[in-house]
Amino acid sequence: MQEKIYREQIAANSNAVDLDFWRHPEGISVPDDELRFLLVPDLVESLAIGDVAQQVHDYQAAHSESPELITKALIVTMGGMLPGVLLYDHLVQGRAAKAPKIEFGTIGVSLYKGPGVRYDKPRVQHGISIPISDETVLLVDDLGDMGGTMKFLTGYIQDSGAHKALNLVLYMKPAAKETCCADFYFGETPQDTWIITPRERVETLVKRVPVWKQRGASEAECRRRLIDIIGYPAAVVEQYLPGVFALSD
User: How far, in Å, CA of 201 to CA of 82, rounded?
Assistant: First the structure.
């Protein structure tokens, strides 16, 4: 039943998207892979951002006369860039008449030295781009996976002079909830779910096809998994799969 609903929701139009399903999706299995995959359509991400933005609007209304009022937002690159741009429209253009304008900036952080090789702790790749001293800062990212990045950045922002740091993501996983739960988020997924947001469809294809090929999958089988099982747009697969498969050892 879960797989049937998933396939329906991947192709749903704006009138048929079931946000309750997307709040607690489990992803879908493919042969010979220990992970489950969840392709988040552009429309779903847009609607999810609207949901999380309303949480922030409610927070702002409740803290209108408090130093806890959010006045700055930092988009965490790369993951937070798409949700951050969408969120800007809601929080800046859509703010209440008397609410202050939130100034948006960026901060870059990295977890990996190279493919599959993690640093001992996250590293700041580029610093805070706007003044945050004595401000309440909203950190915007796409996902809380293990929670290490959110915990690190929360401390980093506070050590950099902020009054307070809050976190916003689209999805939380169990390990992240235990380590550093976001203050605002749309949904939750199991730990083994590989979430494919609109900004990382090609990235996921590039990273996973070589694994499938190594485990014996043909190019046709990789195409079937991407399009028929996970729900990739056929145009994206046809554009990138042949070259990725040919170069994979």
Answer: 13
- The DSSP letter of residue 159 is H
Query: How does DSSP classify residue 101?
Result: P
Kindly state the tokens that stand for 9.
Answer: 């929701």
Q: What is the pLDDT of residues 96-147, one digit of tens each?
A: 888 889 999 999 988 765 444 667 777 888 899 999 999 999 999 999 998 9
**What's the CA gap between 111 and 149, in Å, rounded?**
8
This prediction's pTM: 0.92
Q: Nearest to residue 74, comparing CAs of 164, 145, 5?
A: 164
Q: Which domains does the chain have, with CATH numbers?
A: 2-41+192-247 (no CATH), 44-188 (3.40.50.2020)
Task: Dump the DSSP string for 174-189.
Answer: HHHHHHH--SEEEEE-
Cis-peptide, bond into residue 78, ω within 30° of zero: yes
